[in-house]
Input
Amino acid sequence: MKKLAFTLIAGLAFGTSTMAQQRADFPYSNRFSFGTGISQLLLGGFNVQAEYTTRRMVFDYSHGFNINLSGQTASLLAQDQKLNEKLVSTLGVGIGYRLTPGLDIRFEPKLHQYDVNYNGQTEAGNALLTTYKTVTLGLGAYYRYYPFRKQNNALAGILILPSLRFWPNVWSSLDDNKLTYSNKATNRTETYKAASQGFPGTGGLLANVTIGYTFGFRRN
Output
């Protein structure tokens, strides 16, 4: 009996030690985080992001609203055709794997809804030209940085999350992925195509920084 008890205690101690070591290797495991993206705020919109991180996996949900794309932030076609694009909604999930305690790679399907308007020129007015949806399937690389991680208080949960993502379009609700129309601003017949996410002309490359908080300020 004593031998069995010793074996059970030793096994429990070893298991606890191993789990503690695992948590130490990958801090902030089994935690919820919430945040908002800086680029969405700079473009007049808003984004909410929630994620749950295990020792190795990351599961996230994000929803952006009313992101205004005009001038050099609009797609190249929209710039040429004197149009504004508004991301009325951008909604998606992600599932990722932590390569290191800070770095993870995620697969991210997303649904986006656009409104397209003339850019405010007097002769064009502000009439809605079209509205459409796109679906993207892409990858993202995220790096979790906790500037106060050594603090033993609530400050340890403050999170800065820079990311680099590539979200190419795989579908749009535009017929044949384009709209041919008579443009009131250019006085030409133009063909508009569904916009890509991110930096104009890159086909879906974008970067962002999320400011958030991880609840349960203990790092392990």
Observations:
- The chain has one domain: 26-214.
- The domain at 26-214 is CATH 2.40.160.20 (Porin).
